[in-house]
Amino acid sequence: MKLSNLKVGEKGTIISFTDLDLSVKLMEMGCLPGEVVEVERFAPLGDPMAIRVAGYQLCLRKSEADVVIINK
Amino acid sequence: MDIKVALVGNPNTGKSTLFNRLTGLNQKIGNFPGITVDKKTGFMKLANGKGAEVIDLPGTYSLYPKSADESIVFQVLADANNNSYPDVIVLVVDASNLKRNMLLYSQVADLGIPMVLALNMVDLSEKQGINIDLNKLVQKLGVQVVSISARNNIGIDKLKNAISNTNKIATQFQDVDVNILAPAAINAIKSKLNSDNDYYALQVLHQHEYLKFFSEKEQEEIEEIEQSHQFESSKTQAAETIVRYKYLSSILADVVSDEGIAKKFTFSDKLDSILTHKVWGFAIFILILFVIFNAIFAWSSYPMEWIEAGFGFVTDLGHQYLPEGMFTNLLLDGIIAGLGGIFVFIPQIAILFAFISILEDTGYMSRVTFMMDKIMSKVGLNGKSVVPMIGGLACAVPSIMAARNIENWKDRMITIMVTPLVSCSARLPVYILIISLIIPSENIFGIFNMQGLALMVMYLVGVIAAVLVAWIMKFIIKTKERAYFIMELPIYRMPRWKNVLYTMYEKSKTFVFEAGKVIIAISIILWVLATFGPGSRFDQIDRKYAPALADTTKNTDHIRTLIATEKLENSYVGILGHWIEPAIRPLGYDWKIGIGLITSFAAREAFVGTMATIYSVDGGDEDTSTIRERMSASVNSRTGLPVYTFATGISLMLFYAFAMQCMSTVAIVYRETKGWKWPVIQLVYMTVMAYFAALIAYQLLK
């Protein structure tokens, strides 16, 4: 499933990415395949979202989270 | 200088705080060629008595740039002939998030420049239960590692010692084999450039387009190597990042021990649940915006009055004691008045940047971006554009400087381009004068004052125009940068008050020295145009009034006002006013308004003072009721009808709502975009928009 489909408090493990350029940026920020991510909150208007990964809080738009394939 | 030191690190690692710690106020701001980011350099003394130049490179997560600002880092580190090329790199990492920060370390290390690793915020990471074995880390990396806290002044001397002890030859281990990522292409580049560094060659393959020190022929040859070996940039980058993280995992496994992951962020999380709450989040943000607006609108008015009074005092004193003549007038009314016009902005700039630096430092600004992104990105703006736009209600100058904090180039440009459309406080005197002329002071529905409503509509017009233009520019402005919103939300921290003071000082200084020269130049030109006239016209005016002035039995003040009026009409500005009359007649204006439009290019509120002079009001711009009477009584000499009808008034207000009638804004846009292209585009689009809005309004209403 996609990272953007997770609800607040849910966790998943990153499997792969569907966009090469975005995957480069995401991996540099610590979102590597095998890392566990947890959804911390959504912005008040529903987008973007904040996730916990690699020991810190990262925010990204839902459209960007769409390219992250995870295993719940 | 004996050595050059470059600070390199991720954003939010406290790099700038360290820079301030090392250099104190010995800083200067320069330019990287062809880019809008400032080059901050400073000087420090090392323990061995040697001096070092410190350069603060833009924060970046990797050597692969995602924005033009970030591309500076590799441009400097790749070019041994660059005058910023360092002898020693201090790589600053956030000790509480070591692994992600070390990605940049491992890339930079492979370039083979001598370096020191500075683990910043160790006090914080220890509190969080993270222990880092420094000795093991030193052994595994082969460089000096110093743990510091720039914020609390811990370990700074140790870092300075480490810098002076650094070898001239790099000692770090280069344990990641990057050659396997693209062996054929890398080897071809190495032999082409006579380099034995695999990683340098790989980086050249990736981003040679950014590297201006290659000749056109070299660029072509590199491009050819890329093509013939089918080098795939993004794929190789992805592979490299994975290899590096694997390497870092193995190195850090027995260096970092982390005991308190579970409770680490509880405080920050609690704050976030309030500050980004659906209701409270917005309520608190609006409250903060209101405080900022009030501060730059109301609080700053006191120091601004002192500055104006001070410069007024000096001018009066000069007119009393200096010999009368052209040079005295140029000095006092041209240069001193121009300087006053620059210094008067300092309170607003300093106050706005005090707030911005607090919001950035505490981590709140990232939450603003997080909350506002959905609305703002629809119209081509950024969450961070909210602060400049609200600040624009007081003054566009500090607000445009505040757009510097927007990382994305396109969002920053659009914000700069539309901020002057928001109605600033300088429009207020113009609106009030015209509204009082054309709108009756009556209540409708018993409670709403018509004049008040009209003023509110003018403010709304400004905001709506800004949003619409931003939305249009979203489609017009092209950029190669891909707009990401992937960013770190740093944990909340207390602001560093010293940093706040540095920012206030630095921004004020930058404005005075860099925008100041443009403002002085324009105000001298305007002074010359308004003080001189062609031929002997001025002499004739002086001669005409000489007998009246000599008559000591009468009050000569009004005579002097009449002279001023007649001189303004016959000056170059007056002639220009006549000259543009055919162009502005369709808007409902006469040449007197034309003069006002020209003089108020200095600043919009100058329109009121010019009207006072043109209509021979003795009290100048203070006496608004007389100005109003004279203006409403004035008749167009051509048609015999009143000049200030409802249609003309609306047309004039729309003109002031949209036109770039402010030389200080032009100057600051020049300084912030480092060139004349954007201020000229802005000046043209705003003037055209103002002209047509005024034209349409007048033609429909007349």
Describe the 3D structure:
The complex is a heterodimer of chains A (72) and B (702). Chain A has 72 residues and is of the alpha+beta class. Chain A has a single domain (3-71), classed as SH3 type barrels. Chain A has two helices and five strands. Chain A has helices at 20-28, 62-65; strands spanning 11-17, 36-42, 49-53, 56-60, 68-71. The model of chain A has no long low-confidence stretch (mean pLDDT 92). By secondary structure, chain B is an alpha/beta fold. Chain B folds into four domains: 3-165, Rossmann fold (3-Layer(aba) Sandwich); 179-258, no CATH class; 280-498, no CATH class; 500-701, no CATH class. Chain B is 61% helix and 8% strand. Chain B has 32 helices and twelve strands. Chain B starts with a strand and ends with a helix. Strand 4 (56-60) of chain A pairs antiparallel with strand 12 (487-488) of chain B, so a sheet runs across the interface.
Topology at a glance:
The complex is a heterodimer of chains A (72) and B (702).
Chain A: E1 11-17, H1 20-28, E2 36-42, E3 49-53, E4 56-60, H2 62-65, E5 68-71
Antiparallel strand pairs in A: 1-2, 1-5, 2-3, 3-4
Chain B: E1 3-9, H1 15-23, E2 27-31, E3 38-45, E4 51-56, H2 68-78, E5 88-94, H3 98-109, E6 115-120, H4 122-127, E7 130-132, H5 134-141, E8 144-147, H6 156-165, H7 183-193, H8 198-207, H9 216-228, H10 233-252, E9 256-258, H11 266-275, H12 280-299, H13 301-321, H14 326-343, H15 346-362, H16 364-378, H17 386-391, H18 396-402, H19 409-418, H20 427-438, E10 443-444, E11 448-449, H21 450-476, E12 487-488, H22 497-531, H23 537-550, H24 557-570, H25 572-579, H26 581-584, H27 591-599, H28 606-614, H29 624-633, H30 646-658, H31 663-673, H32 677-701
Parallel strand pairs in B: 1-4, 1-5, 5-6, 6-8
Antiparallel strand pairs in B: 2-3, 3-4, 7-9, 10-11
Helix pairs in contact in B: 3-10, 7-8, 7-9, 12-15, 13-14, 14-22, 15-18, 15-22, 18-31, 19-21, 20-21, 20-29, 20-30, 21-30, 22-31, 23-24, 24-25, 25-27, 27-28, 30-32, 31-32
Subcellular location (chain B): Cell inner membrane; Cell membrane
Pfam families (chain B): FeoB_C, FeoB_N, Gate
Keywords (chain B): Cell membrane, GTP-binding, Ion transport, Iron, Iron transport, Magnesium, Membrane, Metal-binding, Nucleotide-binding, Transmembrane, Transmembrane helix, Transport
